[in-house]
From TrEMBL:
SUPFAM superfamilies: Alanine racemase C-terminal domain-like, PLP-binding barrel. The keyword Lyase applies. Pathway: Amino-acid biosynthesis; L-lysine biosynthesis via DAP pathway; L-lysine from DL-2,6-diaminopimelate: step 1/1. The modification N6-(pyridoxal phosphate)lysine is found at K47. This is Diaminopimelate decarboxylase. The keyword Lyase applies. Homodimer. It is an enzyme of class 4 (lyase). Residues 22-374 form the Orn/DAP/Arg decarboxylase 2 C-terminal domain. Substrate binds at R272, R308, Y312, E341, Y376. Keywords: Amino-acid biosynthesis, Decarboxylase, Lyase, Lysine biosynthesis, Pyridoxal phosphate.
């Protein structure tokens, strides 16, 4: 669990921009990118944190980007990523669109900007072939097994809607050939927050898929290991050994290269790993109260901002900052938000069980800092209870930049008025 910022800086930002506030640290993101430099291509799964300024930072560091919606393609373009297909394994496309379904507007956008499509269904291949001969495609394969920090983030196996089922590979290749599409590569993403014990199995499955692709008479330029790398949300959680991780994939790539008879690019597609630890969410304590044996600390930020605890029972570290810098003795506290819903609790386990947490005593006016919220924090926010989206700030070399202003209620109402 980490918080890259000093209390003084967080108080300054809270005073200047108000709370709730998302704060990101550029140096942490650069550090994580550097840890993955052995991969030919690091492709940021922007769903984890899609602010245009974060995307620009990624681009400046040589990171490519994955988009999973038309909106994410347009964000990538706004951040300066170049549209167009790859010109080989060593010139990968800047933007790849990954999905299992594609609506008409998205189809038109991938065609207009020549964005390679990482297809998770054969229907997508047919739809693309009907309008864009020569389009570059990846095949996202579901290898028949998966793993995730929650069932909701496991993207492999027969219960997952994601990817083309492994036994359908040849059918997908036939659709590519018949449709005049160009196979760029094979992709596998078995889930988010994966247990690395599965890695050997995933790499082995990829080599077999390459073998079958080659046997079916298709060439390819690259393979993608997907994302899924975990981060230590709790003290004592394991941190990933990126050298070992790369080593296993590199070995798989070499086996695949000996099958196809030429070099293959190796892509990694992390979201969480690159940004989670760079971010905190700031809230202000607005009330405290007791209910039977529980002590509640109520803050001005809820699951409309950070959904992970309510959605998955996810753990996020937290700390209480007092303006005078003193730390009160710890107290078991249930930390909850302002929403009109019982599940709006940050300290809960899977299934919504409330879990009081030992935290420094908190009083009205104190700051609550929620750790490791750089991934799947802001990007999963909603306007529930007609609460405007919070502001975002990026700190780089001690300088803070507002990278998203706070939404206003008037902006929300304007969507519905004067139609
Ligand atoms: N590639 C594909 C095709 C994906 O579906 C995802 C995540 C990633 C890459 C990036 O996975 P990562 O490296 O971030 O684990 N909202 C959940 C996570 C859902 C992830 C969905 N797909 C959470 O808050 O944990």
């Amino acid at each position: 669990m980490s918080n890259p910022f000093s209390p003084a800086l967080l108080w300054n930002l809270a005073d200047q921009y108000g709370t709730p506030l998302w704060v990101y640290d550029a140096a942490t993101i650069r550090e994580r990118i550097a840890q993955l430099q052995a991969f030919d291509t690091v492709r940021f799964a922007q769903k984890a944190c899609s602010n245009i300024h974060i995307l620009k930072l990624m681009r400046e560091q040589g990171v490519k980007v994955d988009a999973v919606s038309r909106g994410e393609i347009l964000r990538a373009l706004a951040a300066g990523f170049t549209p167009g297909f790859a010109s080989g394994a060593h010139e990968p496309a800047d933007i790849v669109f990954t999905a299992d379904v594609m609506d008409e507007a998205t189809l038109a956008t991938v065609v207009e900007h020549q964005v390679p499509v990482n297809a998770g269904s054969i229907d997508m291949l047919h739809q693309l072939a009907a309008v864009s001969k020569g389009h570059h495609v990846w095949l996202r394969i579901n290898p028949g097994f998966g793993h995730g920090h929650s069932n909701k983030t496991n993207t492999g196996g027969e219960h997952s809607k994601h990817g083309i089922w492994h036994s359908e590979l040849e059918a997908a290749l036939t659709a590519i050939k018949a449709g005049g599409l160009v196979l760029a590569g094979l992709h596998m993403h078995i889930g988010s927050g994966v247990d690395y014990g599965h890695l050997q199995e995933v790499c082995g499955a990829m080599v077999k898929l390459v073998e079958r692709t080659h046997a079916a008479g298709h060439d390819l330029h690259a393979i993608s290991a997907g994302g899924g790398l975990s981060i230590p949300y709790r003290d004592g959680d394991a941190t990933i050994d990126t050298t070992h991780y790369h080593g296993l994939w590199h070995a798989a790539r070499q086996q695949a290269e000996s099958i196809v008879g030429h070099k293959l690019g190796l892509e990694l597609e992390p979201g969480r790993f690159l940004v989670a630890e760079s971010g905190v969410l700031l809230g202000t304590v607005r009330a405290t109260k007791n209910a039977g044996s529980n002590h509640f600390v109520l803050v001005d930020t809820g699951f409309n901002e950070l959904m992970r605890p309510s959605m998955y029972g996810s753990y996020h570290g937290m700390e209480v900052l007092r303006r005078d810098g003193l730390q009160l003795p710890t107290q078991d506290s249930v930390v909850a938000g302002p929403l009109c819903e019982s599940g709006d609790v940050f300290t809960q386990g899977d299934g919504g069980v409330v879990l009081p947490r030992a935290l420094a005593g908190a009083n009205v006016g104190d700051l609550l800092v929620i750790h490791d919220t750089g991934a799947y924090g802001s990007s999963m926010s909603s306007n529930y209870n007609t609460r405007p989206l919070a502001a975002e700030v990026l700190v780089d070399s001690g300088k803070a930049q507002l990278i998203r202003r706070r939404q206003t209620v008037d902006e929300l109402l304007a969507l519905e008025m004067g139609l």
